[in-house]
Design goal:
Length: about 140
């Protein structure tokens, strides 16, 4: 699935998706409320990996507004995405990511997962910050 984040202004963005079957969905959102959260989902779901979290459900037909996003993995991804969003906002270091995983998901707080999530978040946020107004940031979700 192709995910496109389009910077409309400093305050608003559009998220659009094209699934492998050609179906599409898009939403215009307030960036302050949704952008970091959506990117946090992408980072943790890619790195763990969580295949039936928010983006996996959307890839399988759920709507971007959340209709059809359900299940144990989706709930687990949501539990992690909120605190990761906060670490993005406060520019938490890799130790903060490790502490978050140790606290919320101790079974996953091993190896280099915290470093990988931290780096993925850093790259995503840097990519977004470099995206000009009316420009696109494209991501690929594996099907």
């Amino acid at each position: 699935m192709r995910i496109t984040f389009t910077r409309i202004s400093d305050d608003r963005h559009r998220v659009g998706i094209v699934r492998s079957d050609g179906t599409t969905d898009s939403r215009e959102l307030v960036s302050r409320e949704f952008l970091r959260h959506d990117l946090a989902h992408f980072a943790i779901e890619m790195e763990l990996p969580i295949r039936k979290g928010y983006w996996g459900c959307v890839s399988s037909g759920a709507s971007l507004c959340g209709n059809g996003v359900a299940g144990e993995e989706a709930m687990f991804a949501e539990t992690l995405a909120g605190p990761i969003q906060t670490l993005m906002r406060t520019q938490g270091d890799v130790n903060a990511y490790h502490e978050l995983l140790r606290t919320i998901a101790p079974a996953h707080a091993r190896g280099d997962l915290a470093a990988r999530v931290h780096e993925r978040v850093r790259q995503l946020w840097g990519h977004w910050k470099a995206t000009p107004c009316r420009g696109d940031m494209e991501l690929t979700w594996p099907e």
